[in-house]
Design goal:
With about 230 residues, the chain is α+β, with helices and mostly antiparallel strands. The chain contains six helices and six strands, in the order αββαβαβααββα. The radius of gyration is 22 Å and the shape is elongated.
């Protein structure tokens, strides 16, 4: 199997996003734990990002997808050296056991995962008024986006944070709540066993398609459809 490195994984992910028409900015990498490495980008529709980078706009008010690849570096090392290589790090048993099972990698262990958080720009939320019926419609539409786009992911969640609008009065909190934070979250697992460059490319293609589809779906929820 060809050797895989962290930055090869990041390159494959970026390539998949670009192939799906997404441009990226704010690239960042780091560690959450000693053996946990992550690579994070903020993805936009490439045509909208081109307008921003041309200088025609100071701020881009468009839906975005925060895409984060998290990798277990121990698992990445095991993919590269295999069980034969792992055996060279283990002490030999004091006595041979006839018919002993060879080392096997656990099929439940993950090499890593990719998280996607798709959100509207703050301006779109600031423009919304406190309205219970519109809030219910928004929640219903976001749930539909999660169900349709998230069919190819391993987990999907909808997050809606509310803020009380003091201008609407304090007697009935439900009447005075407007959406202050909205995101649709998807997770794609990457198994340790049986994963090579081809399998990674397939996962990242699904990631890119989900990110692009969710960005456009969120645009439709907030801008394309009248409420």
């Amino acid at each position: 199997m060809a050797e895989l490195t962290r930055h090869q994984l990041g390159g494959l992910l970026l390539s998949a996003l670009r192939d799906r028409g997404l441009g990226v900015r704010d690239l960042f990498e780091g560690r959450q734990e000693p053996l946990s490495w992550f690579f994070r980008v903020l993805a936009y529709d490439q045509s909208e990002l081109d307008i921003l980078e041309s200088g025609a706009l100071d701020t881009l008010h468009a839906p975005s997808a925060m895409v984060e690849l998290a990798v277990d570096e121990m698992a990445l090392g095991l993919i590269n050296i295999g069980t034969e290589g792992l055996a060279t790090y283990l002490a030999q048993p004091s006595s041979d056991v006839p018919g002993g099972d060879p080392l096997e990698l656990d099929g439940e262990v993950m090499l890593g995962c990719v998280h996607i958080d798709v959100a509207p720009p703050v301006l779109w939320l600031d423009e919304r008024e406190s309205n219970p019926s519109r809030n219910d419609v928004l929640a219903s539409r976001l749930t539909r986006v999660a169900q349709e786009v998230g069919a190819v992911s391993d987990t999907v969640e909808v997050h809606i944070e509310g803020a009380l609008d003091p201008g609407g009065g304090w007697n009935d909190p439900r009447e005075s709540v407007r959406p202050a934070g909205v995101a649709v979250h998807f997770t794609f697992d990457i198994p340790l066993v049986g994963t090579g460059k081809r399998e990674l490319a397939e996962v990242f293609t699904r990631v890119a398609e989900a990110a692009a589809d969710a960005v456009e779906a969120l645009r439709s929820v907030f801008r394309g459809d009248s409420e």
